[in-house]
Amino acid sequence: MFEKILYPTDFSDAAHRAMDFIVQLKMAGTREVIVLHVVDQRDVETMEQHTGRWTDLSKIKKTWEHEIAREMNSIDDKLTKGGLQVTQRIIYGTPAKTILQVEDEEDVSAIILGSHGKSNIEEMLLGSVSEKVIRKSHKPVIVIKR
User: How many Å apart are CA 146 and CA 142, to the nearest integer?
Assistant: First the structure.
């Protein structure tokens, strides 16, 4: 049914629950998973504006990239052990917009994501990114509750 899944992750608890669900879909015919992490460009720009000359931004970015790579490799290992083919993508951009672009680029069967991300500030009943993806996606979206 869903042969190729797009799995956007921000490494939150809800995202990890979504990953556990994806592993179970192997028995239903899922073969491939595109694991996507979007580094919110707005956060990077805010940091650039507020850190000024006192902070070496390249060191901060390297630390972020190292942490992201560690998380992505952990996800890759779990999904691969579950018998799935995995492709990792890390993109700087706006989360919802980037997820929808990758949906089209990769021609996925479905998007599976967590209901809420790490930020509780913008969300009320459903995470703001999840809600935007649900509204604008051309493919089925499965939202895993936290």
Answer: 13
Residues contacting 136, CB < 8 A, separation 6+? 96, 100
Domain 4-144 CATH superfamily: HUPs (3.40.50.620)
Q: Which residues of 93-112 are buried (b: 16+ CB within 10 A; e: fewer)?
A: ebbbebbbebbeebebbbbb
The SS3 assignment for 112 reads strand
Q: Model's pTM, two decimal places?
A: 0.86
CB 141 within 8 A of CB 36: no
Written as six digits, the tokens of 60 are: 């901060």
- What is residue 54's predicted lDDT score, i.e. its pLDDT? 54
Instruction: Report domain extents, the chain.
Output: 4-144
pLDDT at 13: 87
Largest CA distance in the chain: 53
pLDDT band at 122 (very low <50, low <70, confident <90, very high): very low
